[in-house]
TrEMBL record:
Belongs to the NipSnap family. InterPro entries: Dimeric_a/b-barrel, NIPSNAP, NipSnap_domain. This is Protein NipSnap 3A. GO terms for cellular component: mitochondrion. GO terms for biological process: mitophagy. It comes from Pelecanus crispus. PANTHER family: NIPSNAP-RELATED (PTHR21017), PROTEIN NIPSNAP HOMOLOG 3B (PTHR21017:SF19). Residues 15-113, 124-223 form the NIPSNAP domain. It comes from the Eukaryota.
């Protein structure tokens, strides 16, 4: 039953995933503005992480916010709309630098707690899986087995597994941490030769529609570094 609906049965905490496409000529300016003024935003609610894409996408940033419930998010959005410092110093100057904004609401899957890297530095891998319709009741067990098979190889650190509630449904975002891109590449090579990983992945891909990987670098303001 826990695989069927997820942790929102037991608590109301959810995560808002925001993805912004930045104008190519304005990426440096946008990052500088975030580093200088984003404390005005984090004064209102908890930032989980803020990254820029290095590989797999270009001129893109991803940030994740934690909310206690939807009333909490509504109160935060109202406060931000009335925060003159935030509006004047960051939001108004930043909006012309952004080409497109996208947001999703997601829950941590019931078998995953939000993790932290063993040390600062390193890189994050953001993997988006589009699963077949039916939800975790259909594909949850096989997907969990595939994730655990990669964890057990020891080359990578799981940060979080998120299942969408608003946005494109049956989407799962998985965040991994690795010491470096080369360390990740070596680990993946070994995993592909591990019979346990191969078997678990073969079982889970029966439910997979598509997959996208992006290598992310944390920004200065990101709690996950």
């Amino acid at each position: 039953a826990s695989l069927a609906t997820g942790p929102r049965q037991n608590n109301s905490i959810f995560y808002e995933i925001r993805t912004y496409d930045i104008k190519p000529s304005k990426m440096k300016e946008f990052v500088e503005m975030v580093n200088k003024y984003f404390h005005l935003r984090t004064a209102h609610s908890e930032l989980v992480g803020f990254w820029s894409a290095e590989l797999g996408a270009m001129n893109k940033v991803v940030h994740v916010w934690k909310y206690d419930n939807f009333a909490h998010r509504t109160a935060v959005r109202h406060a931000l709309a009335n925060d003159k410092d935030w509006q004047g110093k960051f939001l108004s100057p930043a909006l012309p630098l952004i080409e497109k904004q996208h947001n999703e609401v997601a829950y941590l899957v019931p078998w995953c707690q939000l993790g932290k890297p063993p040390k600062e530095g390193g890189v994050y891998e953001w993997v988006t899986f589009q699963m077949k319709p039916g939800g975790p009741a259909l594909w949850g067990e096989a997907f969990q087995a595939a994730i655990n098979a990669h964890i057990n190889t020891g080359y990578t650190k799981l940060i979080g597994v998120f299942h969408t509630e608003y946005g494109l449904l049956n989407t799962v975002h998985v965040i991994w941490w690795n010491e470096s891109p080369d360390h990740r590449a070596a680990g993946r090579h070994s995993a592909h030769e591990d019979a346990r990983v191969v078997a678990a992945v073969r079982d889970s891909v029966r439910f997979l529609e598509s997959q996208q990987n992006v290598l992310l670098i944390p920004l200065q303001c990101s709690p996950l570094k």
